[in-house]
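Revision sheet: structure tokens.
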Amino acid sequence: MRRTVAILLVVTLGGATALHAADAPAPATGDERYVHAYVAQWSRTRFNQIVRGVIDYHDSWVGAAGVGGRWTDLGPHTRLEWELQAAKHWGEQDHAEVNALALLRWHRFPWDRVVRNTVALGTGPSYAFEVPAIEERGNDETTYLLQHLMLDVSVAPPGRSRWSLFLRVHHRSGVFGLVADSGSSNFVGGGVRLHLR
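Predicted:
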């Protein structure tokens, strides 16, 4: 499985880099903003296992809504974005959460004329308004403020459609004691994004 993922990653990034700008759809111009909403389910598996496709779902959920936008382009295929979101948990834990993220998004792939695809990785502070029950399990202590990490893969019709769908990993942790000596949680789900132009 790891070898297959590695091969797909090399082929994808290699092909995307080889794309000539004239052969690809023009990127959005101006100061682009978006709104989004998603629902995700708790998984006991670690973040690196989820990326490899190992997901063990349990009865706890998070729903999130937010706004984001582009800070700057870092090159023809990447851009830096910001995102603010509010989230509500239910199921095995019940509390509200707010997150602020900086993310790096890769937005040029060889198949963009068939389906537009982006991949983003982001991080930033996450504040829970109550002690998260899932994060508290098996830990001597936990904290309201942790680091948020997200992985986002989106798909959209070719061209300049304002709508896209995405899969997302919603992760909170103490970053191996760097932010806090506390628990962590992973939620995996999907949502919809509306681009405002």
